[in-house]
Amino acid sequence: MPTATLPQHYTDLIALQRESGTLGSIAANISWDQETYMPAGGAGARAEQSSLLAGIIHERNTSSKLGDLLAQCEADADLSDESTPEGASLREMRRDYDLATKLPTDLVKALALAQSTAQETWKKSRANNDFPSFVDDLTKVLDLTREKGECYGYKEGGEVYDALINEYEPDTTAKEIEVVFTPLRDRLSAFIKDLTENGTAPKVDFLHRSIAVEKQHAFGQAITAQLGFDYNTGRLDTTTHPFCSGFGPGDTRMTTRYEPTNFPDAVGSTMHECGHGLYEQGLPKGGALFGTPLAAAVSLGIHESQSRMWENMVGRGKPFWNWALPVANKHFDNAFEDIDLDTFVKSMNTCTPSFIRVESDESTYNLHVMLRFELERAMINGDLAIKDLPGAWNEKFKNFLGLDVPDDTTGCLQDVHWSFGLVGYFPTYTLGNLYAAQMWETINETIPDLDAQMAKGEFGALLSWLRENIHQHGRRYSAAQLCQRATGKPLDAAPLMRHLERRVKPAYCM
Amino acid sequence: MPTATLPQHYTDLIALQRESGTLGSIAANISWDQETYMPAGGAGARAEQSSLLAGIIHERNTSSKLGDLLAQCEADADLSDESTPEGASLREMRRDYDLATKLPTDLVKALALAQSTAQETWKKSRANNDFPSFVDDLTKVLDLTREKGECYGYKEGGEVYDALINEYEPDTTAKEIEVVFTPLRDRLSAFIKDLTENGTAPKVDFLHRSIAVEKQHAFGQAITAQLGFDYNTGRLDTTTHPFCSGFGPGDTRMTTRYEPTNFPDAVGSTMHECGHGLYEQGLPKGGALFGTPLAAAVSLGIHESQSRMWENMVGRGKPFWNWALPVANKHFDNAFEDIDLDTFVKSMNTCTPSFIRVESDESTYNLHVMLRFELERAMINGDLAIKDLPGAWNEKFKNFLGLDVPDDTTGCLQDVHWSFGLVGYFPTYTLGNLYAAQMWETINETIPDLDAQMAKGEFGALLSWLRENIHQHGRRYSAAQLCQRATGKPLDAAPLMRHLERRVKPAYCM
Predict the structure, then answer these.
(1) Does A45 touch chain B (CB under 8 A)?
(2) Is the pTM of this model over 0.90?
(3) Are residues B340 and B474 in the same domain?
């Protein structure tokens, strides 16, 4: 309906949402500051600031005033039609309000305490390779997380895991994920086995030539600007763990990391965060929508699809390096002058089974994720006793990646996520890869000369497609709907397999 | 009284204050970010964030809950004795609460609008050297500012100007300032006249040798660390206008500016902000006091006394440069190797009447301030019609500094302050210089070998004196009481004159 005729209860609701969004953007700013420039001594005060602000935001997001306005709008037939932007916005506000109000305060507190305790225990257990010492705390966190899921609720015929995914990947179920993951898992395992047994691994030593950090930073800024990241409304800084935070209208902050002898890590991180950054810059935050679901990212999986597409589909491809390798040589005093384009591109597409998820390559990464999905689902559903996690982990690891896990520190104790009760979070990483691959096929059909464009350093058509099909919609459609609209098909494992076969096999001379 | 026995209404009050302090520190952080790292495109959202946060803070600072707790505590004889820390804290909380609640909302809004309009007009009027076009807006702002002062109220026998100073320099009156300023003004005018007519200006050309900005930054960090600034709880960054912001416990941010050919400007700015920073780091914010007046700076004048002492008393003296010149040569590839210590120190102590306050030197600066004090006092008291400001300005300028002001852009239109309704603010700059000079005499009596210590790069005894006599007290005592306690005397103009005579006359070979 035209803005002029929007009723007071709707405009009041939007105003409240905008304030929450603004407070959230302040919280994002001080959190960014904590990772980038805050002196070490400021940590205590920062925790107090973040906690106070979180409390104020939570109070607003659970207020009866918000609940009343929301109910009024939902009862207003002119507004609540989900096929309109207003109706879709209301649907998503309801989701947020329910997520924020459905948990009893006692449970929230108990979970916070259990997470904090478990995190400390995890640090020690991991350091000492002592899983048994972690069992009680992890059990407690998962019990409370399960309770949380039950409070949220899930559809009939579903499982508690669905309720937990909902926080990260709304409108997705464990069953739907399983249907896509299972064929991918088997094909991927076979693919990797074939490559490692029958292929020839590409040379990568030259990638570790020493390149000054400042030069890597200038190169990272140059390429991300070319990809379309707007530095008038954003920044690139350095942190231990790269991340991207879209503060709000006109302010998106990416971070990356540099090591003189690990240029590919920096390029990968920078292009990955740039993908997140381009999504944030493409969300319609500029006008009246900021603070509403229509100006927010739809899911972690879709967010990750954007980062993965620029990192992998673009950033490991020959067309990109046709343009970027001369740029790199210009920035790096011709450090790779003796490396031809094909050799360089091959080096960016290795596939080596290894134990640590965050160090794994584009192909094996998904097996790390799927292993976690199966295990956390089994644990939360009560099908796997926590004490049996190491055995189950090691067995799956052998099946999926063909490796014998030497110890739990290198195995099931490597990630902090479960101590935080993050269940349903891991699969979004692979969902991101799958969405990216499926979009990538459609994009290449829609822009047949995309490779030629990229080879000249032109990324505008690609970015326009993403802006139009993904970014501009915010949370108007679910991730699955967005995928269907953009690609004409439901999510499927085949495009990712086709992508990896096209990209990695040649690197292994197969 | 011992903490264990503090009544609930007091601990509740302190908890409220701490939350306000914490919110204030968040506001300070996003404001710092705005000046340092925010991309240009983030300005609109930042204004919205700052305004929302200011509204939340104002709501809390004027809440009836706060007022009730305050009244309860004031009625509690065990708490309200001003000679105790709790009593002094209550006195100051009452001041803050009254300042926050005494203004009618309509006046606050009218003033905000008038200030915003006047500021825009001022920009144009200054650019066009067109004072008449500024008269109406300035009149409006000053009328509303006068009304604000009347709402605040002032002691019998006083004047509305007292009420306005109270925001910046509590417990100080126009009359008290006049008593100190008038003799200083006359002695300073004569002193400057004598120097410029009978002295020989020192050579300064070598100060403008080109020094790379990164090297100046490293030098600035090195000397401020040596002065005692703790970089574990603070930072030094770069902004157009240097400032210092003490966010809260363990986090103090200084900024400075660099020009390759203006090394003395950077050193002066850095040491100035370091003085502010050392004060902020010395306030007792670490424990339970953060957010209360006992952990806050007492007045702008005292804050400025700290910055001026390190910038001028320390930073333009021979002892400091005895240590710092070799350090500078080390950082700057021996840029000043051919300059002997005496020549260098002389160059740091010039005295040249000029038109622009912010570019003026240690001696003439105070005449710029005193001129503004006299004029703003006359305007606010209705003794000077706004339209007559340029004439009055130029006449005083001739009397004080011996110069004919060529135009209003270089004259009464140079500062933005009055468009903001900042009346009673300017004098705090010179009060700072006066407090600094008076403390400096006491410090040198208490630490007879201070010069020898500084010549070796030792500043610990000086900082300890400031910590003990100024920093640790927060707002427990008024600025005047602090001065009396620390120096044994009320504020007087003589120490500043003696300091300038000792320091600047030798630079002019007199």
Answers:
(1) yes
(2) yes
(3) yes
Cβ neighbour number for residue B44 with a 10 Å cutoff: 13
- Tell me the C-alpha distance between A351 and A358, whole Å: 14
pLDDT in tens, A266-306: 999 999 999 999 999 999 998 899 999 999 999 999 999 99
B100 has a pLDDT exceeding 80? yes
Number of domains in chain B: 2
Tokens of B366: 């105070």
CB-CB: which of B23, B29, B232 is closest to A39? Answer: B232
Q: For residue B280, indicate whether it is catalytic.
A: no
Length of chain A as a residue count: 510
Whether the Cβ atoms of residue A186 and residue A401 lie closer than 8 Å to each other: no
Asked if the structure places residue B469 within a domain, the reply is yes
A84, A226: one domain: no
Q: How close does chain B come to A166, measured CA to CA in Å?
A: 29
Q: Which of B92, B167, B273, B374 is catalytic?
A: B273
**Cβ-defined contact of A251 to B38 (cutoff 8 Å):** yes
Determine which of A20, A25, A26, A56 to mutate to test the interface with B (most B C-beta atoms within 10 Å): A26
Q: How far apart are CA A16 and CA A8, in angstroms?
A: 12
pLDDT tens track for B256-275: 999 999 999 999 999 999 99
A312 within domain boundaries: yes
Q: Look up residue B49 and give its two tokens.
A: 């964030």
Contact A496, A441 (CB under 8 A): no
Q: How far apart are CA A455 and CA A449, in angstroms?
A: 10
Encoded amino acid at A466, one letter:
L
CATH of residue A458: 1.10.1370.30
Pair B93, B213 in one domain: no
What is the ipTM, given to two decimal places?
0.92
- For residues B363 and B350, give the distance between their C-alpha atoms in angstroms, rounded to a whole number: 9
Mean of the per-residue pLDDT values of chain A: 96
In B, minimum Cα distance to A290 occurs at B45
Residue A96 and residue A211 in one domain: no
Give CA–CA dist B129/B126, Å, rounded: 5
Any A CB within 8 A of B21 CB: no
Does any domain span residue A381? no
Both B82 and B226 in one domain: the answer is: no
Distance separating alpha carbons of residues B369 and A446, to the nearest angstrom? 68
Residue B210 and residue B96 share a domain: no
Strand order in the sheet with A251-256: A234-238, A251-256, A244-248
Of B77, B101, B125, the residue that ends a domain is: B101
Q: Cα–chain-centroid distance for residue B377?
A: 19
Name the closest residue on chain A to residue B51, using Cα atoms. A22
| Domain span including residue B85 | 3-101
> Across the interface, do B39 and A249 touch by the CB < 8 Å criterion?
no
Interface contact flag, A250 B19, Cβ < 8 Å: no
The predicted pLDDT at position A3 comes to: 55
| Residue A424, in any domain of the structure | no
- One-letter amino acid at A384 equals L
The verdict on a CB contact (< 8 Å) between B235 and A37 is yes
- A379-382 long-range contacts (CB < 8 A, ≥24 apart) are A379/A142, A379/A423, A380/A142, A380/A145, A380/A146, A380/A149, A380/A160, A380/A161, A380/A164, A380/A423, A381/A159, A381/A160, A381/A161
Domain stops at, among A53, A73, A101: A101
Residues B121, B154: contact at Cβ < 8 Å?
A: no
pLDDT of B4 > 80? The answer is no
- φ/ψ of B252, rounded to 5, equals -120, 125
A421-438 pLDDT, tens digit each: 999 999 999 999 999 999
Q: Of A145, A148, A160, A23, give the one whose Cα is nearest residue A98.
A: A148
